[in-house]
Write a structure and sequence with these properties.
Shape: globular
Distance between the termini: 41 Å
Low-confidence stretches: none
Strand content: 15-25%
Strand order of the largest sheet: 1-3-2
CATH superfamily of the largest domain: Winged helix-like DNA-binding domain superfamily/Winged helix DNA-binding domain
CATH topology of the largest domain: Arc Repressor Mutant, subunit A
Mean pLDDT: 86
CATH architecture of the largest domain: Orthogonal Bundle
Radius of gyration: 18 Å
CATH class of the largest domain: Mainly Alpha
Length: 175
């Protein structure tokens, strides 16, 4: 196959996937061991989307994990149409805290994030990213395996916690 066909296959894979795909997964799709070649394909697709300025963007959601998404500024207008709307910024911050402190009591989370946390937690539970179990007068929250798969994290809770901490430290260092 040529570069044009490879680009089309990778673009189709990112579109059809229900989660971000890792660099290795994308290499497997093409049957190539070359991560350098795959990065060139990804960059070419990304540049094409940016040049067109359309509704889609190719983004690196985490280290070596890529997704084809709608532009953020379009999401509020599509909430009634798109079922798979990504979590709001507040819900994402709440989710990051849950993943970082897992398991965490909802009362402690509310103390950290404020009263809207209840709304965010409900949203995350409906999306299947957070599991909630009763614990006395509060609830115990932890991320689910769906959350782990969606964000390219290990399923094991300890490994997930470490990976989340590493990624947050990387983000803090870049800021």
């Amino acid at each position: 196959m040529g570069v044009k066909e490879d680009r089309a296959i990778i673009e189709a894979s990112l579109y059809a996937a229900d989660r971000p795909l890792t660099l290795r997964e994308l290499c497997k799709v093409l049957g190539t061991p070359s991560e350098t070649y795959m990065r060139k394909i990804i960059e070419a697709i990304k540049d094409d989307y940016e040049r067109r300025g359309g509704a889609l963007v190719l983004s690196e959601s985490t280290k070596d994990t890529f997704a084809l998404n709608l532009r953020d500024e379009l999401m509020p207008r599509l909430e009634g149409i798109v079922r798979k709307v990504k979590p709001s910024r507040g819900a994402l911050k709440t989710l990051a805290l849950i993943a970082f402190h897992q398991p965490i009591q909802q009362a402690k989370l509310v103390a950290l994030r404020g009263g809207r946390t209840y709304e965010y937690v409900k949203q995350l539970i409906v999306m299947g990213f957070v599991d909630s179990k009763p614990l006395g007068r509060t609830r115990l929250l932890r991320p689910t395996t769906k959350f782990a798969r969606y964000y390219g994290l290990p399923d094991d809770m300890e490994k997930m916690r470490e990976e989340v901490r590493e990624r947050l430290e990387e983000m803090r260092d870049k800021a």
